[in-house]
Amino acid sequence: MDQPAPTAGHPGPATAPPPLRQRLTIPVLAFGGILMAVMQTVVVPLLPDLPRLTHSSPGAVSWTVTATLLAGAVLTPVLGRAGDMYGKRRVLTGALALMTVGSVMCALSSDITVLIVARALQGAAASVVPLSISILRDELPPERRGSAVALMSSTVGIGAALGLPLAALVVQYYDWHTMFWLTSLLGALGVAGVWWAVRESPVRESGRFDVLGTLGLAVGLTCLLLGVSQGGQWGWGSPRVLGLFAATVVVLALWWWQQLRTEQPLVDLHLVTRPRVGLSHVAALLTGFAFYANSLVTAQLVQAPKATGYGLGLSIVATGLCLLPGGVTMLLFSPVSARISASRGPRITLALGTAVIACGYVVRIADSRDLWMIILGATVVATGTTLAYSALPTLILRAVPASQTASANGVNVLMRTIGQATSSAAVAAVLTHHTSLVGGAPIATLNGYLLAFAMAGVVALAAGAAALSIPGDKSPGDKSPDDTSRARGRAASARDGALEGA
User: Is the pTM of this model over 0.70?
Assistant: First the structure.
């Protein structure tokens, strides 16, 4: 009996994985994305108490966040490139394993130095989403790819919304090390799940790994993000911060020059400078800025003392629950985003998402005193973020060859990270300059929060303008060059099989 021709992204029936593994590939990858986001947020409820628990200074404790940010920003494009060259499942498993090892280190120690190193290891998990999206491109047929990629993109917001209340509950009722033991167990499950349910992608990029480009990018990004994240604490005009920014310009200029002259660069700048790719990265940076202000400002606003006249004095657990509807909304709207992208194109979905984010900030400016309005505004911003974040990787998938999917998506995630870091610094600067004394302590004023909302809304509109400037998508029925070549290969195989059977 003739065997059916293999489908897109899958080998023939003789080598296809068992049906159960095929069904679990998407849930397992989504679990890894949610786990990554949870791991990034679980330390937030601990920050006020960590100086006492670790016998260290608040400045040292802040590095438990900064180290994760820096490591994630540096490793995301690097591990994306490694996945394209050496196998995406292999690199994805390694990233989840590093995250799990970091969690175990946090569970075993109360030394601040060990905790900072452990959190840096956990930063490797930032590459989980771009690597997973690349696997989905290689493994799924086009008709299933859009919804799976949209779900994968939404896991960042879903995990962040789940991580904060979960961590707050554990910290409130158990020893703080228990939280890291729990995340260690979840991390081990994630590693085992990927190893068992995810097939190694056959799509590879040949060549030699660009070590010099990796070092240059690492130094340049470290200088940039260190200056941005520590500028408020060290002083924006201090020699340290100015020196870091000067070093950023010099190092990244040399790195750019080196990448253009390297035969097999870490980042294909010729590809990045194409309008469809470059403008997608610009939109990612601006969207990351606009989105992150929502979480930052909401958490501080609802926890402000009632004596301010606007604050609600909520606990960290209640704060996390306020953000939870946004996470649920992101889960529900990810398939909606995929359908819009399939019918109208991801460029329109991205522009629509940024417009919804801006509308959410209009709601925040209209009323930031009533809890239900605060939750509504935050949820509207989360809805827009779902549409935008789900569209970004689809734009990249349509613009780059399959052999560079992981590295290109890694750069896109890097741009979101830079946007989030810049948003954190900008919001902190705004709130610091708009304070009043409440009970003898400086507390941000309501006008400061409203200004932060307005700033984020304007940036969201700028992201929408960047989205509309991206050259038009192909019509929904068109196939990418990779899909076309795979289809031709399958047709040729089918013809050969028919001739042999005859």
Answer: yes
